[in-house]
């Protein structure tokens, strides 16, 4: 696809009517809003139903308490409102911005400004979930720019480099997570595994490792549990799109479908094995053991490499380190830096969905389409149609 530029955009789209690019389902800027809000509500309910179902399954036994269900219900409603307002207000903000620009579309304001401004609806999410959403979008933002740099031939993303990034990120992330082990309120992270806190010498136990029972059982249990979790994700990913024929989907399972399970299982198994070895060797436990353990565990990444996961490990470590900086008052607590960062990330990524679809992370495609109930695809279709016509005439 042709790379969009400021000159090309303003040559094709400057004088296009706003209803064609922002609300093609209705000519009026105001009268088209109810339709978009209704579809955004439907889309948000569908999208966040799956998100919260996965979270409930991952929480397992914690969901036995009534309070957990009430809290999850409250979070679910707030997430729906967040999705609805982001998707539902983009077109009207875009129309207002166009009006301020003299009824003309501008490259830098067409989508970036509307989606950056309504990124402030992130405050509808509860603080505990807000951090997870911000962290996800920072990951996607970094991935997007790495893809753009690779396309421009400034860097080359290889399996070896991605694995090295994941090894470094895992080492720092596990180390900082273990440092936080004694806190009452730990930093919210959506990660594969939360390591056991450091066993202090004052603990009334002869075991120097951070677990109860034998090391072999501890390592095997972690490996088997996460292997099964990875396999469950793979099976769900195969079956859900083919829900009418689940047996056919199961029959289509092949050895290659075990890659994610092997990654999950070996990742936890290696980490636990190295921790236990160092604890036995040194005769005590320490948070610093997580550095070599996390680094070696990162080798399991070769089974199922993903740039997004590699970036996620590093940004997770950065988030934990920023918490330390906030606690030491080296970062101003009154300035909402994470929320402002989210707004920039959202504006950039949602505009990249239209302008640079080849570099935009696939998650953004899915998110926009699902939450807007496919209204975003209608807008992109009109945008692409005008672009194709202009290129044919040139």
From TrEMBL:
Lineage top rank: taxon: Eukaryota
Residues of the signal peptide: none
Spans traversing the lipid bilayer: 41-58, 79-99, 105-124, 153-176, 218-240, 260-279, 286-303
Entry keywords, A to Z: Membrane, Transmembrane, Transmembrane helix
Gene Ontology terms: cellular component: endomembrane system
InterPro entries reported for this sequence: Tmem135, TMEM135_N
Record's protein name: Transmembrane protein 135 N-terminal domain-containing protein
Species whose genome carries this gene: Bombyx mori (Silk moth)
């Amino acid at each position: 696809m042709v790379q969009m530029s400021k000159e090309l955009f303003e040559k094709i789209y400057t004088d296009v009517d706003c209803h064609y690019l922002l609300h093609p389902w209705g000519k009026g800027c105001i009268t088209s809003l109810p339709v978009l809000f209704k579809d955004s509500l439907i889309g948000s309910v569908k999208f966040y139903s799956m998100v919260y179902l996965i979270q409930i399954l991952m929480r397992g036994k914690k969901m036995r308490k009534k309070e957990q269900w009430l809290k999850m219900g409250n979070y679910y409603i707030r997430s729906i409102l967040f999705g609805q307002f982001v998707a539902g207000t983009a077109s009207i903000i875009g129309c207002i911005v166009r009006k301020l620009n003299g009824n003309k579309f501008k490259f830098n304001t067409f989508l970036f400004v509307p989606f950056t401004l309504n990124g402030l609806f992130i405050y509808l999410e509860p603080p505990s979930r807000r951090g997870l959403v911000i962290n996800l979008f920072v990951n996607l933002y970094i991935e997007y720019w790495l893809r753009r740099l690779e396309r421009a031939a400034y860097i080359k993303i290889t399996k070896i480099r991605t694995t090295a990034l994941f090894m470094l990120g895992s080492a720092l992330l596990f180390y900082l997570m273990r440092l936080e082990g004694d806190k009452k309120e730990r930093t919210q992270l959506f990660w594969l595994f939360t390591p056991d806190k450091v066993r202090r010498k004052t603990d009334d136990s002869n075991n120097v490792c951070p677990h109860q029972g034998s090391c072999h059982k501890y390592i095997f249990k972690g490996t088997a549990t996460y292997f099964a979790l990875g396999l469950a994700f793979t099976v769900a990913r195969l079956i859900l799109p083919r829900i009418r024929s689940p047996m056919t989907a199961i029959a289509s399972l092949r050895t290659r479908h075990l890659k994610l399970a092997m990654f999950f299982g070996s990742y936890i198994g290696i980490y636990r094995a190295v921790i236990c070895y160092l604890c036995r060797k040194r005769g005590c436990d320490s948070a610093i053991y997580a550095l070599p353990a996390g680094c070696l565990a990162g080798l399991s990444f070769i089974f199922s490499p993903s740039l997004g996961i590699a970036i996620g490990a590093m940004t997770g470590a950065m988030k934990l380190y920023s918490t330390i900086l906030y606690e030491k008052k080296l970062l101003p607590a009154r300035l909402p830096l994470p929320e402002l960062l989210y707004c920039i990330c959202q504006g950039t990524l949602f505009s990249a969905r239209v302008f640079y679809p080849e570099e935009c992370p696939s998650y953004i495609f899915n998110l926009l389409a699902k939450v807007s109930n496919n209204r975003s695809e209608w807008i992109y279709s009109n945008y692409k149609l005008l672009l194709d016509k202009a290129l044919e005439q040139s």
